[in-house]
């Protein structure tokens, strides 16, 4: 029976290298991050990178998955855990202010910023990230439609438009964080955005009663 020879064991920790690649893409974006940048950040040679992660595109796909699992899950958790759409969206925006400005990390959101200024060669990556952002917008719209059906929001609420508004605020907060805006200022943006949230039927009735006094 032939003896099976094992390949040389890796001289680096794969998870640590992946996190370093994640930070590089997060900081500089997909197109601007070269293989040389990645090997320097990860502390490995190009052959080791290709052997462990495949090419740059394949590595980036794994990076995005790791980012969502490690840093981007706050959106889904808020939508799943909060009892009302208003509280869910308020939590998303408040936590985004914290997540996008967390010390020791690149600012903003990788899914929002990684494909900014990317050229035609990166069109597939741009589209994949756009699809992820659209999935979040659809999740907001689904929660808002449920709130309308439950009577939490007025019957005439435009769920698609309100969801797009929330997504636009999130994307703006990410870019503001990239520009150096701090957590407190972004929390103020979140609070201002929530003032545009439609009043529910009960709130509207209370407002009308107060006006009649």
From TrEMBL:
Pfam families reported for this sequence: TetR_C_13, TetR_N
Key word tRNA processing present: no
UniProt keyword annotation of Nucleus present: no
SUPFAM superfamilies in UniProt: Homeodomain-like, Tetracyclin repressor-like, C-terminal domain
Annotated DNA-binding residue span(s): 34-53
Record-linked InterPro entries: DNA-bd_HTH_TetR-type_CS, Homeodomain-like_sf, HTH_TetR, Tet_transcr_reg_TetR-rel_C_sf, TetR_C
Name of the featured protein: TetR/AcrR family transcriptional regulator
Organism: Streptomyces desertarenae
Lineage of the species this protein comes from: Bacteria, Bacillati, Actinomycetota, Actinomycetes, Kitasatosporales
């Amino acid at each position: 029976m032939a003896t099976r020879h094992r390949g040389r064991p890796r001289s680096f920790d794969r998870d640590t290298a992946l996190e370093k690649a994640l930070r590089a893409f997060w900081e500089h974006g997909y197109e601007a991050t070269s293989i040389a940048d990645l090997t320097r950040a990860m502390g490995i040679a190009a052959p080791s990178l290709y052997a462990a992660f495949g090419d740059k595109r394949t590595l980036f796909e794994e990076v995005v998955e790791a980012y969502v699992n490690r840093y981007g899950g706050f959106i889904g958790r808020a939508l799943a855990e909060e009892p009302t759409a208003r509280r869910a969206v308020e939590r998303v925006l408040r936590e985004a202010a914290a997540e996008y400005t967390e010390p020791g990390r690149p600012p903003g959101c990788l899914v929002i910023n990684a494909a900014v200024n990317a050229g035609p060669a990166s069109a597939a990556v741009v589209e994949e990230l756009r699809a992820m952002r659209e999935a979040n917008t659809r999740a907001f719209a689904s929660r808002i439609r449920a709130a309308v059906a439950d009577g939490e929001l007025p019957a005439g609420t435009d769920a698609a438009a309100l969801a797009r508004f929330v997504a636009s605020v999130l994307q703006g907060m990410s870019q503001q964080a990239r520009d150096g805006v701090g957590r407190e200022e972004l929390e103020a943006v979140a609070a201002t955005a929530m003032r545009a949230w439609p009043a529910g039927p009960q709130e509207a009735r209370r407002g009308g009663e107060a006006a009649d006094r």
